[in-house]
Design brief:
Layout (H helix, E strand, L loop, with lengths): L20 H12 L2 H4 L3 E2 L10 H22 L1 H6 L1 H30 L8 H23 L4 H16 L11 H30 L33 E2 L14
Antiparallel strand pairs: 1-2
Amino acid sequence: MRTRATPSPGVPEQHADDPTWTGKARRWLLEKLPPDKLLPGDQPSYVMSWAYVFGMGAVASLVWIIASGVVLGLNGPQWYHVSSLGGFVNGSHLWSVELFFIFMVVHLWLKFWMAAWRGGRVLTWITGMLSFVVSIVAAFTGYLLQTNFDSQWIAFEAKDALNSVGVGAWFNVANLGQIFVWHITLLPLAVGAVVALHVLLVRVHGVVPPLEASGNDAQLRTSGPEAGGHPSEARRPVVAAHPLTSTEPKDAPL
């Protein structure tokens, strides 16, 4: 006689015994990323610090980069070189890139000094660094698409550098069509995929706590005596994601 499996937390009981590959995939997804983690209604109190703002600032800048880039790509260089509206969209695209890198650099430095790879968050840190590296390549190809004397000078200087390491024939920065495909298709897809994976990993493992709060981090995967961790790793209460009022303490107890 077949016994009924006990459903994992977050997995509906009617799907707990589904033997198909889709059922197994559904159970795995619900276990790793339940809805309360994907769209949480509250966060630990330490996320009210400014140290946790710059990552979201980088994501917001990336959204505008993609939106303005789509408009520029559909209308072409002649539009944003001649039209005043095109020049405005082109300028906003450039400055959103500048803000993106400012936010990302500050975000990476803050997370480095917070040792953001703690608590099973190594892959979260790696995807953050990888998104920064891929974004540099995407920004470089964007400079080549300015279609002015600056981009021409940058292209031929870069061509000499790439030829010196033997990859100039494969990655020809003087070929505007090739760079156009890299900049508006391949690299944006790569940046978007890595950033999306990074955000999902943040949802799975939770935002990294400050170093002084790491012993009481409620979002560590192996925290608390019930998970086999050290008894000092007691679970930390979370607070609703809203500003503190005058009746609430300014420093939530650890």
